Predict the 3D structure of the following.
Amino acid sequence: MAQSLGEDLVQDDSSSLGSDSELSGPGPYRQADRYGFIGGSSAEPGPGHPPADLIRQREMKWVEMTSHWEKTMSRRYKKVKMQCRKGIPSALRARCWPLLCGAHVYQENSPDTYQELAKAPGDPQWMETISRDLHRQFPLHEMFVSPQGHGQQGLLQVLKAYTLYRPEQGYCQAQGPVAAVLLMHLPPEEAFWCLVQICELYLPGYYGPHMESVRLDAEVFMALLRRLLPRVHKHLQQVGVGPLLYLPEWFLCLFARSLPFPTVLRVWDAFLSEGVKVLFRVGLTLVRLALGTAEQRLACPGLLETLGALRAIPPAQLQEEVFMSQPPDEPRPPRRKPQTRGKTFHGFLTWSKGPPLTGPPRSHRSSTSFSDTRF
Amino acid sequence: MGNGTEEDYNFVFKVVLIGESGVGKTNLLSRFTRNEFSHDSRTTIGVEFSTRTVMLGTAAVKAQIWDTAGLERYRAITSAYYRGAVGALLVFDLTKHHTYAVVERWLKELYDHAEATIVVMLVGNKSDLTQAREVPSDEARMFAENNGLLFLETSALDSTNVELAFETVLKEIFAKVSKQRQNSTRTNAITLGSAQAGQEPGPGEKRACCISL
């Protein structure tokens, strides 16, 4: 479904690069688009979006699934996953994201925690750093324009609450865009628990004082590149572009600052249902779109050109339906006899064929606590 | 040398911008390379890049400037950014003393990861905020002198000294390079940055001569 839709919609390149406020252009006097970005171009559901009756149909499915969520997740997770890949209808994201990541369980189990944290005074050191960043998150989003607006104030509350909740972790600037996107959809308390889940369950070790998991995943990413896009991998090595030059912002912000906003939401839908592997898939797809052909690599003889290409993928290719239905990338065939023990890769963003890459629906690092709290 | 493309240059110098979060590194960079300033410039996560080619005498020098994230925890992933840098602007906010108090730690970080011959300038940014100054010029200048650093006060907001700061650093690097070349019988040009690992320049691209001090 999504794929056939996507194919018809290639011409539409009007998608808002709203997630990147600096690309959205100035426009304090202009209207906000349908995602809240002032001067953004996604004002109307154009041809890039599913037709209304399809959205309605999906909404009904989600209403049905969320009405008995625990049962749905334990018995029909596959269906949830597929629906997430198709995109959660925007009217239902506020309901679905906390359910998908398990934030609702935490919130129910500790009903007073957030309010207490929100009221408590923050560590002055973190408060200063957080305050300095408040106006630098999506400054062209209508929610975050004013220092006294509920966007910036909510951001302050949620980020402060996290530093009090996990004083040993403190604040990482990349949590800002993540919390901001959550706050665009959720009240502060729900946003807080979703942030907790993202930081602790989905991406443990990403935002902490040593960011060790980012470094580790950068290595994993390189290994995947070597296997799946060997020519691109070789090119990146030749020009000296290591993964730490482009990957931290992608992964730490869950692509919130690197993709058009409608696509960001689709990636998040899939991420919250399937975990970190979605980040790898999206990252690999971006690398392939930027440097996949010999001509593209030839046009990037050096480090800066290569990094530039990674940041300058034509918006039409990043448009949500087009991007989310990217064709699979086949690994190179084995040189000798076929391997039977290795996993088969079925592409990064197209999952309809073949077995899933990983089994249980969980974050790749968390184990028992994940299933305990979520499902 | 060049093949008539929009940019011909004789040298590529890699310069890093370092310093605490919020001191104005990103705006110094955007002021220098695009003549832009934004109060709402987004936080730098990881690293950003920009280039500008300047003429030093008859030589065209392409400054490849790396703007790094300032928050302490990012140091775990930013140490890789120093490799091959021949210049650095160590920026502090002259209206916030604590951003100056940690300059020494930044210097150590720099010398731990970059080459010892790197040209370093201490930059006190936000000089337009005269009322809010917390770091006296003399104190910072003294520190710079004692540590063999260049020193300037800048304002990315009103452009004061931004050109001068980058150009001074580039000139100093250029002088070092020229001296090194004179001392060397053979051109001691080592590619870095764009051609670091790629010893095979693309067709028509053999125009840059990057220097390692």
